[in-house]
Amino acid sequence: MNEDYLWDRSGEPDAGIANLEQVLGRLRWREKKSRRWPWIAASAAAAALLLIGLSMHISSPATSWTLSIAGKAPTAVRAGQVLTQGTIESDFVGEVEIEPKSRLRMLSSKASEHRMALDHGTIHALIWAPPAAFVVDTPSAKTVDLGCRYTLRVAPDGAGFLTVETGWVAFQWKNLESFIPAGAACTTRPGHGPDTPHFLDAPQTLVASVARFDRTQDPQALAAALSAARPRDALTLWHLLERTQGAERAEVFDRFAALVKLSPEVTRDAVLRGDPKAMDVAWNALQLGDTNWWREWKRAW
Amino acid sequence: MLTAIESGLRQATLVRAARSGDRVAFGALYQEYGRLVHGVLLAHVSYQDAEDLMQDVFIKALERLPELREPAAFRAWLLAIARRAATDHQRSRKPVEEPAPTLAAGKNSQPDGEAFAVLATIQRLPECYRETLVLRLVEGMTGPEIAERTGLTADSVRVNLCRGMKLLRARLEGSAL
ipTM for the complex? Predict the structure, then answer.
């Protein structure tokens, strides 16, 4: 055996080793554009260009989306088209699986924003475009992708239900917004907008109490929710800070401050008067990621 | 060719960017470490499972990246995620009695049968030789690259390659390949 060839391919090739290389090389990892990894492949391609100093301008064509339905040839998606099943994919945006009997409308597809409307049904989205470039309107809130994988279901009455698997998603309606991280869920209702989000593993008492408070503003429901909250549920409490006023907000803040370690710059007074900077710093105490990276995109809404 | 220092700086820059939500930077890390992760997975699980686990490993890395405080630790941290994913996968798998692979059988069964058979033989070698051999013979890395990528010393890699290759040849010959 030629050990030098085995070590660094120097010297005379060893026939036996070369044969094994040739046979096993068929299993080698390829930088292929896999349907399972389109966002990675797209990102890697973009990064490669950026890293060698090329100026790259990604300008998606008006219809950058392709619809695939099992047993049929892929077709380009037109703006305004209504989609009821299948999978749509855009190289620079992501992949959206549409469950049968859904109604998803392609509103617009521009380089800066790809916008759709889910009237009813369920979609599973895997998005690799920059945050806020992929937006789905529902009858009760706008869904803005800040991450990469989520499921959105819209009931016939327009109510929405969102679960996030990785990354972040924001629900927005008028001045009300919810930020939903991986492992969390949020509902939204017509005429009301996004409810308070919660982690999927949150205590049932908390989930039920928060839902009741969202609908009735019942102070007892709020008290029950605060009492049931674990440190991880500070996410829910942070959103409740923005949904309460006066004494109720003070109650929420006290519980919030007991569950997370707050920076000294987050004072009770600042939070009670809804100071945006204090709210941002309070968010950072959740250790779910810094607000800076999504605030930038949020302003563009 | 980047020096080790340049490579380290580049990795740290990409990790910091990815940690702050830059998915292009994360894509570059995927491109940079895809081959290494694939090789480590392939040392433990089937080819098809390795393809599937690639997704799980990088999604987990993306999710947990904010927890990684030291960018220089990224490579070892990623390898740990990959090895754990392979271990978890093996634990969850139902035990299946697999026939002893032979190259002849592989040739007659499917186009990649030969490769699968040799891979299965490598996977039956002692743990310490598997990753090194897969990275060298499947992923096409040289010994020095394997040492640099895995953090093993060059001497360890050289020993693992030589002993592992001798064992592999003996096993393949023993199964009339």
Answer: 0.84
Q: How many CB atoms are closer than 10 A to CB B99?
A: 8
The listed CATH number (1.10.357.10, 3.20.20.70, 3.40.47.10, 1.10.10.10) that belongs to domain B97-177: 1.10.10.10
How do beta strands A94-98 and A86-90 pair?
Answer: antiparallel
Q: Which of A230, A195, A235, A234 has its CA nearest to residue A213?
A: A195
Phi, psi of A238 (to 5 degrees): -60, -40
d(CA A275, CA A124): 36
Quote the pLDDT of residue A56: 32
The DSSP bridge pattern shows strands A114-127 and A134-137 to be parallel
Residue B163: what residue type?
Answer: R
d(CA B126, CA A264): 55
- What is the pLDDT at residue A255? 97
pLDDT digits (tens, 9 = 90+) for B126-150: 877 899 999 999 999 999 999 988 8
Output Rg (C-alpha) for chain A, integer angstroms.
24
Structural tokens at position A156: 């016939």
CB atoms within 10 A of CB A198: 24
φ, ψ for residue A184, nearest 5 deg:
-115, 170
- Range B1-95 classified under CATH 3.40.720.10: no
**Residues of chain A neighbouring B52 (CB-CB closer than 8 A):** 36
Residue A284 forms contact with B (CB below 8 Å) = no
Closest CA to A149 of A132, A172, A136, A167: A167
What is the model's pTM? 0.53
Nearest chain B residue to A21 by CA: give it. Answer: B137
CB atoms within 10 A of CB B30: 26
| Residue found by looking up tokens 């966002």 in the block | A39
Beta carbon pairs, A and B, within 8 Å: 117
